[in-house]
């Protein structure tokens, strides 16, 4: 096996929940209204740092699609799928786009920053 090259993303990024590898930029979210077997999912116009599984026909709630599962390039966990072909005209906008399962990704902002919400003393309290 060769060396794995990882694309670093500038800006707010969604990452693999398991190994924290960058997968997609928040600005590439097309829709947050998708669902998968495990719960909520997001549709993205572009995703990086993935490998693709075999192409297969899959019947989904919105009809028949040709898709390929996508896996994190670093840890190998399945993170979603890519739409190769939509067989219904009304679903053609999905072609070439990616779905990342919300339960398998984290928002880079959620994991990198901590805001202390504990009350602290202020000048007004000192008397």
Briefly characterize the structure.
The protein is mainly β and 127 residues long. The protein is 4% helix and 46% strand.
Protein model, in words:
The chain is mainly beta and 127 residues long. The protein has one helix spanning 108-112, and strands at 13-16, 22-25, 29-36, 39-44, 50-60, 63-72, 78-86, 98-101, 105-107. A 6-stranded antiparallel β-sheet has the order 3-4-8-7-6-5, with no helix packed on it. The protein has a 3-stranded antiparallel β-sheet with strand order 2-1-9. Strand 5 and strand 6 form a beta hairpin. The N and C termini lie far apart (68 Å). The relative contact order is 0.23.
Average the pLDDT over all residues and give the rounded result: 86
Q: In what order do the strands lie side by side in the largest sheet?
A: 3-4-8-7-6-5
Work out the helix count.
1
Q: How far apart lie the N and C ends?
A: 68 Å
In angstroms, what is the radius of gyration?
19 Å
Q: Quick one: biggest sheet? A: 6 strands, antiparallel
C-alpha geometry: globular
Low-confidence stretches: 111-127
């Amino acid at each position: 096996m060769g060396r794995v090259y990882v694309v670093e993303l500038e800006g707010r990024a969604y990452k693999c929940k398991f190994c924290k590898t960058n997968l997609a930029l928040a600005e590439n979210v097309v829709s947050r209204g998708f669902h998968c077997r495990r719960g909520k999912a997001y549709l993205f116009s572009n995703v990086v740092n993935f490998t693709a599984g075999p192409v297969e026909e899959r019947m989904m709630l919105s009809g028949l699609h040709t898709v390929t599962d996508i896996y994190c390039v670093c840890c190998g966990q399945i993170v979603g799928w890519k739409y190769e072909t939509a067989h219904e005209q009304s679903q053609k906008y999905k072609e070439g786009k990616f779905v990342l399962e919300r339960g398998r990704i984290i928002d880079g902002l959620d994991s990198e920053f901590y805001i202390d919400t504990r009350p602290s003393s202020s000048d007004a309290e000192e008397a």
